[in-house]
């Protein structure tokens, strides 16, 4: 074990922190905050109109990111073990890596769906018909597709609010995707050996130092 006043131990500890937080904790906190925001915003969008599709209310992406953050917090509870006892921590770290990749895919899909819907709404021409908002891309074409938003008293307020929510979803999911990508990059780069909590053992280092002292 390293002494408490060993400067090398302090440098090693600082190399695994950012702004005073260990990297798993920092990533998990960001994922939890972003996932919660995306989930809440998705349910708010679903409350605007009952006819909105699931892909247009990406609370599912937020739930996935929240689950990823819980695995990150679980990884913090596992102390570093010697190489012959790493089955549990390897499983959790591999799960965290794979779920972060899944969260990345989900957030990218959410950004794509929100962007597509937002670009469509910028070209809509909408009218209020019997407590519903009916929108068309081309008012001249009688066979053009009509998009109907139920439970809408005022088309103007619905479209403006929905546009704002879509922009927020694009921004939040984009940031969440970047956080998940960075998590995967750091985990892959250090081969699951950088992150640890609790007491870390250095049997090989201690043995080498003991041999040097004997010589």
TrEMBL record:
InterPro entries registered for this protein in UniProt: CD20-like, Sarcospan
PANTHER family (alphabetical): SARCOSPAN
Residue spans crossing the bilayer: 25-48, 60-82, 94-114, 166-188
GO cellular component, one term: dystrophin-associated glycoprotein complex
Swiss-Prot/TrEMBL keywords: Membrane, Transmembrane, Transmembrane helix
Top-rank taxon: Eukaryota
Location relative to the cell: Membrane
Keyword Transmembrane in annotation: yes
Entry-linked Pfam families: CD20
Organism whose genome encodes this protein: Manacus vitellinus
Main location: membrane
Membrane topology category: Multi-pass membrane protein
Protein's UniProt name: Sarcospan
């Amino acid at each position: 074990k390293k002494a408490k006043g060993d400067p090398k131990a302090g440098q090693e500890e600082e190399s695994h922190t950012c702004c005073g937080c260990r990297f798993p904790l920092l990533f998990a906190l960001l994922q939890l905050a972003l996932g919660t925001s995306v989930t809440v915003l998705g349910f708010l969008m679903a409350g605007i109109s009952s006819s909105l599709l699931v892909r247009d209310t990406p609370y599912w992406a937020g739930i996935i990111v929240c689950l990823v953050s819980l695995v990150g917090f679980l990884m913090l509870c596992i102390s570093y073990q010697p190489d012959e006892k790493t089955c549990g921590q390897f499983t959790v770290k591999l799960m965290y890596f794979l779920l972060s990749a899944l969260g990345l895919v989900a957030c990218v899909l959410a950004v794509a769906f929100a962007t597509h819907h937002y670009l469509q709404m910028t070209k809509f021409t909408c009218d209020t018909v019997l407590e519903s908002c009916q929108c068309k891309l081309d008012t001249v074409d009688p066979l053009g597709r009509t998009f109907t938003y139920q439970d809408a008293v005022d088309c103007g307020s619905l479209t403006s609010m929905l546009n704002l929510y879509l922009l927020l979803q694009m921004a939040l999911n984009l940031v969440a995707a970047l956080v998940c990508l960075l998590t995967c990059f750091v985990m892959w780069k250090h081969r699951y050996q950088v992150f640890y909590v609790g007491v870390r053992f250095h049997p090989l280092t201690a043995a080498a130092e003991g041999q040097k002292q004997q010589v």
